[in-house]
Amino acid sequence: MDYVLQTTSLTKIYGNSRVVNDVSMHVEKGSIYGFIGRNGAGKTTFMRMAAGLAAPSAGSMALFGSGDLEKQRIRIGTLIENPGIYPGMTAHENMETVRRSLGIADRRRCDELLALAGLSDTGKKKAKHFSMGMKQRLGIAISLLRGPDFLILDEPINGLDPAGIKEVRDLLLRLNKEKQITILISSHILGELSKIATHYGIIRNGSLIEEFDAKELTQRCRRCLKLSVSEPQEAANLLERMLAIHNYDVPQPGILRIFEKLDDTARINQTLVENGISLRESYLAGQDLEGYFMDLLGSSNESV
Amino acid sequence: MCRLLNAELYKLRKSKSFYTCTILTVVLVIAMFAVFLTADNIQNGKVENGTGGVVVSISQESPTEASASIWDTIQLMDILRQIFSGDVVALFIGTFISIFVISEFSTGMLKNVVGKGCSRSSIYLSKLLVAMFASFLIIAAGICTALICGRIFMGANAFTDHFWKNLPVYTGLQFLMLLPLASIFVLIGEFFRNLAAGISIGIAVASLPVILLNLFDMKFADSSFTPSQLWPVTRMAGCPFEGFQTEYITGTILVAAFWLILTAGLGMWHFSKTDIK
Known about the structure:
The complex is a heterodimer of chains A (304) and B (277).
Chain A: E1 3-14, E2 17-23, E3 26-28, E4 32-37, H1 43-51, E5 58-63, H2 69-72, E6 76-79, H3 91-102, H4 108-116, H5 132-143, E7 150-154, H6 162-178, E8 182-186, H7 190-196, E9 199-204, E10 207-213, H8 214-220, E11 224-229, H9 232-243, E12 248-252, E13 255-258, H10 265-274, E14 279-285, H11 289-297
Parallel strand pairs in A: 4-8, 4-9, 6-7, 7-8
Antiparallel strand pairs in A: 1-2, 1-3, 1-5, 9-10, 11-13, 11-14, 12-13
Helix pairs in contact in A: 3-4
Chain B: H1 2-13, H2 16-43, H3 70-73, H4 76-83, H5 86-106, H6 120-154, H7 161-192, H8 195-219, H9 232-237, H10 246-273
Helix pairs in contact in B: 1-6, 2-5, 2-6, 4-6, 5-6, 5-7, 5-8, 6-7, 6-10, 7-8, 7-10
């Protein structure tokens, strides 16, 4: 398996706080990796380390299979938190500044990328007068200057209107499919992420708790009978013995999900109750990424 | 490194703060001459004493027509000394460099460059070199303005052979001291990464040691050692315009080298170690 980014027990400590804790991530070549976590979970700090803006406290990282990060980072484009742009310069001047810093000889590249980002008609308008969406698009254009093989985008669709979100989504899909650019993207808009991501990583309190691909997510989010019971494994064993139900899982303590015989839920409930299993809740569910994520993190009150 | 310098020079060309500080330096020099012109007019009786806030008194008395012209009593080197005193240099250079450096952090533009194949040391060094170059240009604008105004108000007589002979050495020594001063401001900007803190602390660092070192001077009054001459700002303010001795020139080179290497080294080290937010 070719990994563009592979981290091993990557950790970042600020003072007494382990902001990123022992994260071992695997971003496959050619994938769009959706990085999901609550505010303050450690996504941005992790991405900063991957981009070379912050040094890890512990652990290691490999880019394109190599430990020579300085050399490999020229193949990366990044957009971390707010786009880095001079407010007093125009879009073209901002691009030109970065083009010169990176030593890109082709001057037309700035115009090409501004056209791609839909900013070619901004003329002499200073970046400080741009809308949030325009600034985000400029940031994305800057990240593409060097023709990267790997893009690290931290919430790139923040502040975009629905049309803008679609444009960025289409752009990222095009870059991934046509130019085989691997993308690591974090976003709070899980619905949008689920439309483009091929792989997912979920981080909670600095630790990567799950990594799976889109197929596995579909599997996990498929229609099921969700049971809230005190002893899920005991309940599962009972159903296996009595009703020959084998397709189930226990995603978290107190929850049992049944994926077969969904047309006979009454019998399942009855079987559990009659055999002394304390059944608190029973309902048919089919989840999207947001629902799965909320279940995983155990609370629907805090924002993503 | 060349491409980084290219980019920094491009940023300098587009920098409003650079042009503003240059213009303000020119305006300040012109204002100095304006004050002297007003004083001269007061002495000549053309305007009343106190006009424009300028009060002229000679031996605690108002001037009379018999008093000598102001332009005969001051020399162009006095104006140049005023430019290179702490006020002009520390204020304008410190303000400009703080903005030039700190804006990289506050705008987040640094994120586009760090970790993209350029070493942090080269990023810091390119910023430092262009900051120094810009400082030269700002002060050079002040000097040119002084020379032009001197020609207009003081006449050709102000430009003696003696003046032209000493001017290159004097400005050379001052520009040499400008290097570590610029480096100090770059270090402070990089360290604090906040505009308000950077400007205020930069100016304080340039000016406050002057007071402390003057106290130390008194302690060593009996010896030939003058601690204040070890600080760039005081050395600039006290630089002679003539009679340059080898000892003084050597001392200037050593002081400049010491502070330049120390501050540049500290700055590069700190920048290499800290995270970019």
